[in-house]
Amino acid sequence: MSNRIAAKLLAEFIGTFALIFIGAGAAAVVGGGAGLAGVAAIAFAHGLTVMAFAFAYGPVSGGHFNPSVTTAVFAAGAMRAGEAAGYILSQLVGGLLGALLLGAVLGGAETGLGTPMLAHNLSLGATTLTVTPWAGYVIEAVLGFFLSTVVLGTAVAGRAGNLAPLAIGMTLVLNIIMAGPLTGAAFNPARALGPMVATGNFSDAWLYLTAPIVGAIVAAILHTGLARLAQERMATAGTSAAARTPAE
After folding, report:
1. Entry pTM
2. 129 - beta bridge partners?
């Protein structure tokens, strides 16, 4: 293994470890039923962690910290298959160790360690809501789509320059404020799997592990298609300009 790929894998491991330890840790400490202030605290814990470590490790690995983001980058043709597999393995291991350490410092798994769960009898004004697995799948897929779209459009395409980590971190904040009470808003297989293994609670694991990947692949397809259309438009404009230029 070259020093370059080793540095990338270590960066992804550390970033994902931090995301689970801080983000899931905030969810475990705040707990459920804390209202908007609690949801906002959890959202900013996730978003600021990703933003900080993306600033720190973005130049090294791209700062994915999420297997669905890595899938999107691979599907968009921006990384090789072997490298993507290494990223995903490092992220899953980082998430697992982050959750295990979180359980150790919190004295066990009684807090739930931030394991994402579908809402049951959630009070919404004068009514209550139970999120079905189908609805939860759609929510997690859409959240994964949003995050991957922002990553591809900023960090990968280079449109946001040095501000890409800010855009990505704020996407996490917005996603979690909206969907945190509904699904736990993991939209990250490593964020979901780590606490699930640490607590032994694998409820709806299939949903949390696959839905963000589906959203990421859709985001990559749209990103690639839009980029191709933009290139064709530029080529057509160049041809038209050349045709209007008088021959010398």
Report:
1. 0.91
2. 122
Cβ pair 204, 136 in contact under 8 A:
yes
Token duo for residue 2: 């070259």
Domain count, the chain: 1
Domain harbouring 52, CATH code:
1.20.1080.10
pLDDT of the residue at 248: 46
- 125-141, pLDDT tens digit by residue? 889 999 999 999 999 99
Host domain of residue 64 = 3-244
